[in-house]
Write a structure and sequence with these properties.
By secondary structure, this protein is an alpha/beta fold. The protein has ten helices and six strands; from the N terminus they run αααββααβαβααββαα. The chain has one domain: 3-Layer(aba) Sandwich (Uracil-DNA Glycosylase, subunit E). The longest helix has 18 residues. The mean pLDDT is 96. The chain binds uracil (URA). The site of uracil has 11 residues, from loops.
């Protein structure tokens, strides 16, 4: 297990990383999930979105954000003036947790080197974390999304610094649509940086 995580840190390409993850046996979630949900969109994109973990629809299709939250994420991407062919999308956890429960801290720690290398390989100009779990796992903040959203944070890959920003998770916006206004503020700020 430790060696697979070590190998992830140096996977030379996205394809190599995907193969490593498909062969990885150190995360229990893999055994209850239908399949690996690696990523969607364009690996050359300038902006990368990272969510929490696949849900039911994603587990079936093998692609991130294809269910209801995914439809809203598409609208968030459109608010930046882009679509999925000009954005890249992945999750911190690549296997669906049973019944969509929140991943445990241990599961998150086990999977973290994969998404970290994933980000390093895509090397976007802007990294957008969606919601608390993704933001806390990747940006190392302890504060909640209300405080962290919309603030630019340096994300250090070890070789490069990427501009990162958190915004609300689309599933949260579906439950609390009044926060869409703030999220759209964040998206406008992202569009500006990408200009
Ligand atoms: N929620 C997430 O965080 N990721 C998905 O892929 C789908 C829903």
């Amino acid at each position: 297990i430790a060696s697979a995580r070590e190998a992830a840190r140096t996977a030379p390409t996205l394809e190599a990383l995907r193969t490593l993850m498909e062969n990885f046996d150190g995360c229990a979630l893999k055994h209850t999930a239908t399949r690996l949900v690696f990523a969607d969109g364009n690996p050359q994109a300038r902006v990368m979105f990272v969510g929490e973990a696949p849900g039911r629809d994603e587990d079936i299709e093998g692609l991130p954000f294809v269910g209801r939250s995914g439809k809203l994420l598409d609208r968030m991407i459109a608010a930046i003036g882009l679509d999925r062919s000009k954005a890249y999308i992945a999750n911190v956890i690549p296997w669906r947790p049973p019944g969509n429960r929140t991943p445990t801290p241990q599961e998150t720690q086990v999977c973290l080197p994969f998404i970290q290398r994933h980000i390093e390989l895509v090397n976007p100009d802007v990294l957008v974390t969606l919601g608390n779990p993704s933001t806390q796992a990747l940006l190392g903040t302890r504060e909640g999304i209300m405080r962290t959203r919309g603030k630019w944070i340096d994300y250090d890959t070890g070789t490069r610094t990427i501009r990162a920003v958190a915004t609300f998770h689309p599933a949260y916006l579906l439950r609390s649509p009044s926060y869409k206004r703030l999220s759209w503020q964040d998206l406008r700020a992202i569009a500006k940086v990408l200009q």
